[in-house]
Amino acid sequence: VLRKIEQLKTMRVSAEQFNGKIAKMVKQELSDPSVDEASHFILRLSYCQTDDLRRWFLQQETTLFQHRLSHLSTEQLAKSVKEYAQIKPIPRAEKERLQSHLMQLMNPVEFAKSHFYAVPFQQALDLVAQRQCYLSQGNAYIPQAKVLSILVAKFRSELSRCLVLMANTNTFRNVEDPEAVRIYPLLQNLNSCLVNEEPSGEQGLTGSTGLTAANVDRMAPHMPLCMRQLQAGLQQDKKLRHWGRLQYGLFLKFAGLSMDDALAFFQRHFTSVTGEQFQKQYAYNIRHMYGKEGKRATYTAYNCSKIIMGNAPSTGDHHGCPYKHFDNQHLEQTLQRLKIGTDGDRRAIMALKKSHQYQLACQKHFEVSHEKANSMEVSVDNVGNHPNAWFRASVNYAERLAERRRYNQHASISL
C-alpha cells in the first residue's frame, strides 16, 4: 500500500482520483484491523534503520493517516481530536468574544455550526502560513474543519520521534530471545523485499521487441537512468567493474536477454581484453549469473531499494542510482544532455532528488518522457520501484504509439 501511495503522488491524477485509489487499496489490503496494525509496527522496525528509510516511511504513513482522517465523520473527528491531540473546543463565551476575528475564517452559517480549538501556534505552522487560523497571545484558533492539520502534524512528529528512538536503541540487536534473533535478519532486509518481482526472461519482452545481443544498444533509450548510465559507461570504458556487471547483467537477463546473447553482447563491448581473456575472466561469472555454474542459484534483478541502499560507486564505477549518487550539478547536466523533459520538468526532478525522494524522481522521469502513458492504458505498476518495470513500461508505450500511428495512417489512406 505504501509503495502504491508513493507511486500515486507523481501521477497526474486529481485529488478525487488520488483519494479514490487509496480508498480502494485500503479496502482490499487493510480491511483487517489486526493485520493493519501489525504490519504498521513491523514496518516501523524495518524502516527505522537509516535516515532515508525513516524519511520514506514517514512520508507515506503520514499520507495514509491524512487520508483516513479525511474520511471520518464530524463526530468521529471531534472524538479523535479530544483523545489523540488532547485538546477541547473553546468555550462558547470565548467563541463569542472572538467572533469578529473568527468570522473572517468562514461564512456566518459555518461559524454558527463550527467548534474552534486553541493550540500553541507552533503546532499549526502550516495553517499560520496559509492564514487559515486566528493568532492571539501565542495561540492559534482553528476551526474544526481545519483541525485535521493538527492531528497530522502530531502524528508525523510522534512517528518520527519513535523511529529515531528505535534506531538509537538498536531494537532487536541487543535482544537475546531466540525468536527475536530469528526474525531480525528478515526485518533488516524487509525494505528491499516489498516490491513485486519482475517477470523472468522467459516471461519478458517477446516478438519484435525481444532483447538480443544485436539490439541492446538500440533499446537503451527505453531504460531507466541507472541502466542508461551503465550502458554509456560500458561503451565509454569498454568494460564494467564487478558491481556494474552484476547490476546491468541481471537487469538484461530479466529483460529477456538469453545467456548466449549476454555472452556475445559483453564480449563485443569488452574490446580492451582478448577473446581468451574474456573467457577466463568474465564468461564464468555471466554463466553463474544465469544459474549455469557454481551452485546454480537463481539470481533476480536488483530492485530500486537494493540499488539505492547498496554499494555506492567510486571513481571509475557506473553502477548505483544516479538520483542518489550523482551530485546536483552532475545530475542536472545529465538530464539536460539526454533532453529529458522541459526545464520545468527537470527542475521538478531535481527538487525530488534534493529532498531525497530518489524513486519519485525516477518515476517523474518516466512520466515526463511518456506523457500519454495513462491515456494509452500502459501499466506503470512498479515503475520507480524496479528498473525492469520501467523498461517494460517504456517499451510497451513505444509499441502502443507505433500501433496508433499505423492505425492513423491506415485511416487517412482509407479516407
Kindly describe this structure:
The chain is mainly α and 415 residues long. It has 22 helices and three strands. It has helices at 2-9, 15-29, 33-47, 51-70, 74-85, 92-97, 99-102, 108-113, 125-129, 148-168, 178-189, 216-219, 225-237, 242-254, 259-269, 275-289, 304-309, 322-325, 328-337, 343-354, 358-369, 387-414, and strands at 116-120, 134-136, 139-143. Strands 1-3-2 form a three-stranded antiparallel β-sheet, with no helix packed on it. Strand 2 and strand 3 (139-143) form a beta hairpin. Helix 1 (2-9) crosses helix 4 (51-70), helix 3 crosses helix 11 and helix 20 packs antiparallel against helix 21 (358-369).
Question: Which features does this protein show?
Answer:
single chain, 415 residues, mainly alpha, 3 domains, three-stranded antiparallel β-sheet, 22 helices, elongated, DNA_primase_lsu_euk/arc, metal ion binding
Q: Strand order, biggest sheet?
A: 1-3-2
| Low-pLDDT regions | 200-204
Q: What's the overall average pLDDT, rounded?
A: 86
For the record, the count of structural domains works out to: 3
Write the H/E string, N to C.
HHHHHHHHEHEEHHHHHHHHHHHHH
Helix content: 55-70%
Shape: elongated
How many strands appear in the DSSP assignment? 3
Strand content: under 5%
> Mind telling me the C-alpha Rg?
26 Å
Secondary structural class: mainly alpha
